[in-house]
Every structure is written in C-alpha cells, then in structure tokens.
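Quick illustration for those who missed Monday's session on complexes.
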Amino acid sequence: MVPKISTLSGYLYEYQKSVANPAGFWSHIAETFYWHKPWTKTLEWDFHKPEVKWFLNGQLNITENIFERHLFLRAKQPAIIWEPNDPSEPHRVLTYEELYEEVNRFANVLKSLGVKKGDRVAMYLPMIPELVIVMLATARIGAIHSIVFAGFSAKALAERINDAQAKILITADGGFRGTKVIPLKQTADEAIRSTPIVEKTIVVRRVGQNIQWNDNRDLWWHDLMKDASPRCEAEIMDAEDPLFILYTSGSTGKPKGVLHTIGGYMVYTAYTFRNVFQYRDGDVYFCAADIGWITGHSYIVYGPLLEGATSVMFEGIPTYPKPDRYWQIIEKYGVNEFYTSPTAIRSLLAKGEEWVDKYEMPTLRVLGTVGEPINEEAWHWYHDHVGKGRCPIVDTWWQTETGGIMISPLAGIIPTKPAYATLPLPGVRPVIVDNEGKKLYGKNVEGNLCIEFPWPGMARTLWGDHERYKQAYFSAFPGLYFTGDGVKRDEDGYYRILGRIDDVINVSGHRLGTAEIENALNEHPLVAESAVVGYPHPIKGQGIYAFVVAPEKLKGLDDELRESLRKGVAKLISPIAKPDKIQFVSGLPKTRSGKIMRRILRKIVQGSTDFGDTSTLTNPEIIEELIQGYQK
Ligand code: 7RM
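Prediction with 5'-O-(acetylsulfamoyl)adenosine bound:
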C-alpha cells in the first residue's frame, strides 16, 4: 500500500519533499510495490528532446501488483462489483481470487491465439466485467491494450485499430444503455472491412441478439474460456515497456494514440487514488465513468485494484430507469467514495431535488468530479443534496496524457472552494505562463497551464509518432509540458481551471477536436467548408456549434440538410460529436493567409460583439451576416 497523507501539514511536508528530491520521493512510494528487479535509476528526463523515463531497468508485472500482492489477504474480498443497466437483472461480484482466475484464463486464451509481448489487442466492449478481464489479461502477458469507447463509429474504430495495428479485437454481441441496445458486433464487422490486420474477433455474449458470424474470424468468448487454465505466469516486463494506448482528440483531425508505460503509471495511479479519495481498506468505491476513457482506466481499474480496493462498475446511465439510479447504487452497496462528472451532476440537478433527497446515503464520505470545469451551482447541489453537506468534494483536474490526477484537493485535508481544483498533488509542479512563455509567479495571475517537471504517470509518447508528441505538448513553451488548458491562480494560491484554449472542446466531459467534426461535416457533398466552435451549454458544459458554408439554393431545405449533417457526424465519429446547432453561412471570416479567425466565431456564439482587432480579415463584412444568423 502506498503511503497516505492524513493532515494538511503532512501534505505540505510531502509536497516540499517531492520538489526538493523527486527521485527520492517517488522511489519511496515505488518501493511499496512488488518488483522482480529493482530499478537502477529513478528518473531520466529531458523536456526538450522530449524524453521521460522512470524506474529505469526495474522489472515487474502490473497484474502481480493487483493479484499476487493482495491475494493472501483479499482473496475473498470483492474486487469488482458490477451493477447491470437494468436493476432487475442480478448484479455480479468478482472477488480478487475470482478475477485473478478469469484474468489468467483469458491470458491463456490470448496466448493460444498467438498474442505475444508487445502486440496490440483492441477492445470495443460495453461496461461489463469482461472488459476488466481483457485489460488485465493483456497486461498479464505483456501485450498492449487499446480500448475504444463503445460509443465510437465503425470508421473511428477502424482508424484506431489500424493505427495501433491490433491483430485481435474483443467485442460483444451488443451493449445495454438505458432503453437502447447498442449493436457493437455489427459496428465492429463494419470496421473490420477496412482493417486487414485483424486476424481474430472474440465476441462476448451480452444481449443475446442475432448477429452475423464469420467462421474464419469470429470466436465466442465462452467457448474459448471453457477449457482455459486459471493459471498463467505473468510476463516479466521492463518498467518503461508500454502498458496501453488510449486515443484522444487533439487540435488536428487525427486522434492521438497516447501511450502509457507500466512502472510509472502503476505508481502514479495507485498513489493518487489512495490519497485524493482518502480510501480506507474495506471501503466501497464507485467511479461512474466509462472504462473507454482514461478516468475508467485509472480510477475504475488500475488505481483501485492496485490498492486492493472494492470498485463498483456500472453498465448503465444515471437516468435509467429513473434519475435516481446512482443514489440507488450508492445505498445498495454502501458506497463510501463516489466519483462522476459535472455533466452528470447538472443533468440530475435538472430533474429536481426530490430524486436525490429521499436517499440518505449514510455511508458516503467523499465526492469527486472530473472531466470539465464544475460551475458553482452544480458544486453546491452536489455538496448539499448528494453529500448532505458533510462530504468534501474533490474537483480533480487531469488529462488522458497525465495518466492520473494532477491538481485536486485531498479529501477532507485540503479545504475546498467551489469551482477550484485547489492545489497540486505531491510531485506535480504546475507553472502559469503568458503567451510569450514568461512564467507568472505569485498570486492572482492567469495564463497557460504548463507542468515544469516530470511525474511518473505522464504519457511517454504518441503511438508511432514521437514528433507529434513533441509538437503537441513540448513546443508551445520549450522546456515545459503544455496542457492546452487556461488557468488562474487566486489569492490563496489555489488553481482554477478555465478550460481548453486550443481547438479542443469539452462536451459532457468528452474531449472532441473541432477539426475532427469539421472533417466529418466537409464529407457531405453539399458542404464547401465548415468551422466548429464550442458554446456555453447549461448541461453539457459546452455545446457544438457549426458554421457551415453551403450553396445559396439550399434555402428552404435547411432542416433536412441539418439532419443529414448530424447523421453524417454520428456515422463518421460518434453520436456524442453531433453538432447541437448548425448555421448555414455564405463564408467564414478569414485572414489574408486563408486561416479561419476562430476567435470571432467563439465570440459570436457567446453572444459577444467584442471582436478585438479585425483588420487582418479579408472579408470583415461577413461578421454582420454571422451575427444576424446566430441561433441562440
Ligand atoms: C480526465 C480527463 C482532459 C481535459 C483537460 C481539461 C478538462 C479535466 C477537469 C477539467 C476543469 C477539472 N481527461 N478537465 N478535469 N477541467 N476541471 N477538474 O477528463 O483527456 O479526457 O480531458 O478535460 O480541459 O485538459 S481528458
């Protein structure tokens, strides 16, 4: 178990130590894990190259740190409590011992299919325990998992499989989400038509629907698992070997394959989980994210299981069958720590207090949020109605690339303040820089959020494209890791995250690149050009607003074209990327070099007319047209 901070002075002490001697600080934490061979050097780094390595030459397997390390004490303790979409269906509990055996069985299945250390295995699965089993089985044999969120389209799935060159895909016959059945196998089949690399598809039966079957390629999970041995020796890995790839949106159209390595990610997720949530042995912890995103990777699976926790995994949505589903689950299992997104909180707030007020939830001790800035109204509602005024809220700021939580209160230890992520965790050194890269010290400053020193959980590269890694994170401000977020440090030294300052928008806590959505819109034969920006949305945080240049003669067919564009985006990316608003325009504001001046578009959709300097525009007259047509 990692060391746990328990007082404010303890936090200050650990923080100072982590800055004065980072290698000593993280070594001390890493020593609590099980290594086959200790590391010979704790850290090697250069943010200019860029290159970061932690626990060099250390040898381990992350699944031994989940299972072998805990089994003698926790064999019979639930590791995963799985709650189905439909509350009338039975739930499932997997103890550490049971999960261990399932993981080993599937590890043997993967081996029998020829999967070797370093190979990539893709997953397109709903929120079912098999997803955790395949992740850990992949890690057990030293292969690299690449999980694709089950809401993505066939095209998005194919793009990710091809980029990672995954030979095996694990999917399900379908998935349940509220009243919907998601046809995952059908989408996977469509994707596989353009992924020549995929040799085998393993299919978990979840919904029992009829599906197409390819005898040469498709295999049933239950057939393969039937005779598999529940013992599989763990592959001994290097600390810097890859653990997984997770694709995320950036400011260009192509998704980025963020790569995390084993040793640093293990130490970082376990440490941050224990300390931020102040998890106590025997507690029941519930993170309502999807494992298809980083929050699920780090704080449903790795962090909690590395710390021997009981982690609740929920298949469904917060409003099905009724908007009290989360509170029901919290009471059913006696949840102590609960972690969700501001969007989920806002959507439940909008349903009325009566849904939450009838639940006492006496076991709740800590509440967490992640993914987007939380507005004060949502913060207070969460605090008063869910936490009954007695649970601290940890507003956790971090990213796919950071691997784990970076800036956040430690529950009950660091005094909270609505909408503030508060202070950096030990080992995290944020700096605020202005647009010229000058560091802004002291209180009451605002600017670009960078990190000036490596931490173990940070991404090491983008899969197959180290140059893009450098470009995306280390070139805006040389020598610093640039997060893409704006931030303010207030008079208490507390950090408030202001949101993305690049061409990434955050819709319901989902990170989307505006360029990706534009590319999808531009595929339509009637679209000449488009520009997408985020606008303030009461529930989703940001909504998607698309300015679309389409021919004049379409007047009258606007609604039809709008619908077809929205469908097109759902098909090419995902339903979560569908524009909320589409405005047809005759042109976009452009500079002489042909660049769209997005700043103006952002202002328009905020209802502002303060456009700043527009003298470099070739077509300033277009602004009036855009304002006239702007849809509130
Ligand atoms: C964990 C996750 C990362 C982006 C990040 C921010 C935004 C995340 C907060 C937040 C304000 C927070 N990874 N973000 N947490 N903004 N307060 N507590 O979400 O890669 O999908 O997104 O999300 O803009 O850069 S992510």
